[in-house]
Amino acid sequence: MKGFKKWALAAAAGLTALFLTGCGGGGGSASVEHTYSIWLYNAQDASFYTDYAENPTIQYLLSKTWGENEDTIALEFQVPPAGSQQNNYETMIATGDFPTLMQNSVADAPPRMLESEMILDITELVEQYMPNYYNLLQTNEALRNKAVFPVDGQDRILAIYGANEDYPYYFSGTMYRRDWIVKYGKNPQTGASFTGGYTDPNDVDSWVDDVVFPSGGTDPVYISDWEWMFEIFTEAMADLGITDSYCTSMYYPGYMWSGGLCSCFGEAIPIWYKGSDDIVRFGGDSESMRAYLQCLNNWYEKGWLDQDFNERTADIFYAIDDTNKRLGRVGLWIGTQGELGGRLDMHDGGLTEGIYVAGCAWPINDVYGDESCKNVEPWCTPGGSSLVGTGFLVMEGADEKDLGPLLAMLDYLYTEEGALLHTLGATPAQMEEAGLDTSFYEKNGIAEGTYTIGEDGRYKKVSAITNDAGGLLTASCCDKLPGYTLVSSVDEGYAETYENSMKAWVKYVNKGQIWGSDAFSLMSSEDMSAVGDLQSKVLNYLEQHTYEFIKGITDIDSDEDWGNWCTMLRKFNYQKGIDLLQPYIDMNPFIG
Amino acid sequence: MAREKNQYKPPKVTWKQDAKRNWSVYAMYLPAFVMTVVLSYIPMFGIIMAFEDYEVRKGFFGSRWVGLEHFRTLFTGPDFLGALRNTVCIMLIKCTLGFVAPILFAFFLSMLKSRKYKRTVQTMSYLPNFVAAVVVTSLLVEFLAKDGPLTMLLTKLGAENQNWLANNKIPVFWIIYVLMGVWQGIGWGSIMYVASIATVSGDLHEAAAIDGASRLQRMTKITLPCIMPMIVMMFVLNVGLSFSVGYDSILLLYMPSTYNVADTVYTYTYRMAFGGGGNNYGLSAASGLFQSIVATTLLIGSNTLSKKFGDGHSLF
């Protein structure tokens, strides 16, 4: 019995200790002055390596010395498990256990973080250690708007942001079955049938055709072009015996509040946005919104629009009814790069046999609503492309370390030479020169590195990188750190048809969606909270009732129904949102 | 009286004396005590968030005090009453249909003669409990889609061909939701009853059988009264927990066009607090506090009622 008691006590003490240990933080031991911790939002593809410090370009950078005293540095990367970034960030705030540098993907706006003494004002540090970044801030408006904020009446640098040489290509966009246009369409000018096809059956991008749209070009530009396509798709589906599909679908609420198709009818989106005159407006009850809903209602009535779009709540906006799409039963959709060209062809004699998918830009309305809704370029686009890259914050407590060498290293990534490392990574030759292992390159089929110099003097990605569907380039270069990213200086190695599709997706970039913009970063917590509450209520209403107009449950052409809709939206006091947002837009109207 | 005088009374022992004598028992209790305090009592301080415009970076003491503002926002919200109605209705169906199903299942199991078959059925019935909500809801979405197997079956039986989860007429969604819960939890929920039925003396059944009682009569006149304390206890607990209906499953099943029937206080709060692009922790905490108070009231109320009308059977 005595023995049992001792065991029981030991077990109880052990359990208690274990439990209490679990409650504590796992404190790090890095105390070297030149060892810096960096928090990244997400990790690279784990099939290459599990710790970002093993990245060859990072190793190359760490093999060098940095700063006035030519110090070597060490980097420790912290990457939370996917999906737990917000929790991880909040735990950091609660414990005060910050890294040296933190990617600000989930963090609050820099001015509010400075006010809460969570980040450092790095103005003097940038001036002293980052001359290239500092110079770029003076000349690059987009970058300046992201990183420089007024503090006590003075402009202060609060963040280190990456900068892009040009608007980079985006991973997703609208696309359509051009092979159906060739097969079933007729030239709108001459009435002749189109001709086209693959010049090389083994090359998914070798498509050539003579398609001309009603607007006169080789790509769809206007809503009327889209509707012309829908007529052709309808004919195609009838001929192919597809009875339970549709020409296009829509994100389940009936709109995307960040923009896209709904912003093609005269700038507006259903919530607050900044107009081209820098005035904040609410678009939910605008004529643009009504024109948009009239368009979708018409598409729905004609059977062009997915009859069950509002039931597809589990689908991401770029993968709506994915199975149907991949079976070749849909005409136009929002998809990803991997669906362009002939990549969806399953070669099984089914509906994807001979498929050719081409990307297109958002359309300009030329059909619906009054003149104010017509011939206006799409104004708000979701996601999309930006001139500014990833941002980082220097966290409170980082000044206990000697930040000079770290910042000097980061500044190097804004030089011409460093930008190349940042964008395309170190070459095996550079690695060898630095006495580093080059097995990564051989193992991954890029023995000569990720690029060559093309005939036009641009950096040309090698085919292993161009054809890689995973994250080989990200694993090779150091673009997870802030730096200058080369865009127009790089020949992606894409086929012309493929590149045309990618270009179409960045034809219109976001100019008016306020949420997440630079002006938003300036907002006080109270104002932001008030706008957030208003937006929750408005979106809650829009989500529940927009589809009713589209499906004809309420009549979009009826002034009474439209009036009721407007009255309901006014009850949410959206004017308050305008009044709250306008002063911040006045302070910084730049969006882009 | 004489009998009462002779009754054994344990000697009075103080808490300290008991602890000294049975220190090993107290030591074994320590981890549970620490865990309860750390995980259940200390976090209760977070209730303060319900009265603040809480911001993580400012913490409990730095965030702005807003008093009852979040409660006002919650109760005057555009769809709050609808969400509350749906919550109460789903709770009621859960407390009737959802509560009775495991009891019946346990009864039927207890009547099976083949032990091997009984164990197989029992084990199989537990399995759905371990399937993640996202998988269960995905299955349900597929089965009840316009071309789903269950829909086809219902169509054959004369019902309209439709996506049943998109039906926003009362009480379609409520019943689907509760039946999903029954399918997932019937086996697991029956464990306590099966164990309780197993403790009922076989002599009683034997005697009743000799007296000519049928199986049904033995079930209603012997088994049911014997396990009534367990049923009451489970009912009281069930009522308390039932108000917290629908978070993950409903979020995965509902759609804007069915908010009018599927929205519960949880999902409504989720949209209001986190659906506008920001995080309104204060509103979320206020809703949590409201639901906890209602659940506790229901728990105490059902316990009182069961004590009054259930032959003195109650949880506490």
Number of helices of chain A: 22
> How many strands, which pairing sense, and closed or not: the largest β-sheet of chain A?
6 strands, mixed
Q: What is the C-level CATH assignment of chain B?
A: Mainly Alpha
Structural class based on helices, strands and sheet pairing of chain B: mainly alpha
Which structural class do you get from the secondary structure elements of chain A? alpha/beta
Strand content of chain B: under 5%
- The CATH topology label of chain B is MetI-like fold
Number of strands of chain A: 19
N-to-C CA distance of chain A:
76 Å
- CATH domain fold name of the domain at 35-164 and 388-505 in chain A: D-Maltodextrin-Binding Protein, domain 2
Extract low-pLDDT stretches of chain A.
Answer: 21-31
Helix and strand element order of chain B:
HHHEHEHHHHHHHHHHHH
Task: Label this structure with key terms.
heterodimer; A: 592 residues; alpha/beta; D-Maltodextrin-Binding Protein, domain 2; 6-stranded mixed β-sheet; 19 strands; B: 316 residues; mainly alpha; MetI-like fold; 2 strands
